[in-house]
Amino acid sequence: MLDINFIRANRQKVEDAIHNKVYDIDLDEILRLDDERKELSREIDALRQERNQISAQMKGGKPDPKLIEQGKELKAKLAEKEPKLAEIEQDFITKLKQVPNVYEDDVPIGLTEDDNQVAEVCGEPTKFKFAPKNHYEIGQARGWIDKERASKVAGARFAYIKGDMVKLQMAIVNFVMNSLSNQEVIHEIIDKAGLKGQVVDKPFTIVLPPLMLRTEMYDAMDRLEPREDRYKIEGEELWLQGSAEHVLGSMHAGEIFEEKELPVRYLGYATSFRQEAGTYGKDMEGIIRMHQFDKLEMESFSTKETSRKEHELFVAIQRWLVEQLELPYRVIRKCTFDIGKPDARGIDIEVWLPGQDKYRETHTADYMTDYQSRRLQTRVRRDSGDLELVHTNDATAFALGRIMIAIIENYQNEDMTVRVPKVLQKYLDGKEII
Fold first, then answer.
1. Per-residue confidence (pLDDT) for residue 57, from 0 to 100
2. Which residues of the chain are under the pLDDT cut of 70?
3. In 59-105, where does DSSP find H-type helix?
4. Backbone angles phi, psi at 90, to 5 degrees
5. pLDDT for res 359
6. Exposure string for 178-210, b = 16+ CB within 10 A, e = fewer
7. Is the pTM of this model over 0.85?
8. Please, which residues have CB within 8 angstroms of residue 421's CB and are 6 or more apart in sequence?
9. Which CATH number does the domain 4-96 belong to among 3.40.50.300, 1.10.287.40, 2.40.160.20, 1.10.3720.10?
């Protein structure tokens, strides 16, 4: 959520964000409500002060009918104005929460996904001497993917993953956890990205988070909407999380970091759930768009001065991870429409999928500034003693299903066996082919 004072001081910038992120919001109404609540709050404070003065005058003395009458009048006025203030406050906060974050200057302006920009292409699309299969054909042939039985048990967009594909997923998980919890690896990535001296070479803490979160926390993260894409636990104010950052970013709500603690970096592994509302008929073959999927997600809390470089580090880590698997990919600078309501900047990585003959998104990196932490009230005590809101970043390390798709399709053999990327072989007892 944006600060109302920031909105007043940066009216045009906020108007641009509303327009270029394609939202329909009346800022005049929000500012009017702010003025109204402030004026009413001043009136109520004055009435309360007057009531307190009367109470003080009446203590220990003989009851004064005049003061008693004045007290009754004040009580009646407060009974009228206090509920009205509560109503205006609620209306104001509801509308303020709808205002999107402002975007960074280097975000492309665009009103549809088609306005996203390819920033860099890395590697050539994989070539074969045979017609490549898609991951689902290979997965079925090898007995790795069973959607038919999953549909019988759980419905569409679920799958049983079996055999060597499970081992491949665990190999990827171990590779990422070992890498990102290793300070030497983080140092190497920082060096390669030209970020030396700009970010701290601090490793990630590995987290297995809860898979559910309360409505209040989900809403404060500004990740609850659209609600039709989320799974709610019937009869409870609990939701299945849609990505690990939803439960990582909210874990320090209401807390204060010391400046020397930052950045705090987490790598969370979680099974995530989405209803995929609005995608009827899309990507029905294979496991590219599922109701249930496993993810490794990065989250960080940092100061306002270091948060943009932290975002760039997260993108550098994503690129390093994909390059370790020797997969062809491209970097996408997401436009204003596509970066999302809480984001100030967003970068996607798309990996080449030979079975589909196109690039598909495998990673996203979100830079939120203090938009999330304002509602979460996650702060930092600076060395000066001042309290400030922290800045947050989140980014995909690997969406396990999608990266396995990329490996299967890019490393396939004509007999539908799959070569194992070198970096993963030690996690599969030295196997070179599955």
1. 83
2. 60-61, 279
3. 65-96
4. -65, -45
5. 97
6. ebbeeeebbeebbeebebeeebbbebbeebebe
7. yes
8. 324, 325, 326, 407, 411
9. 1.10.287.40
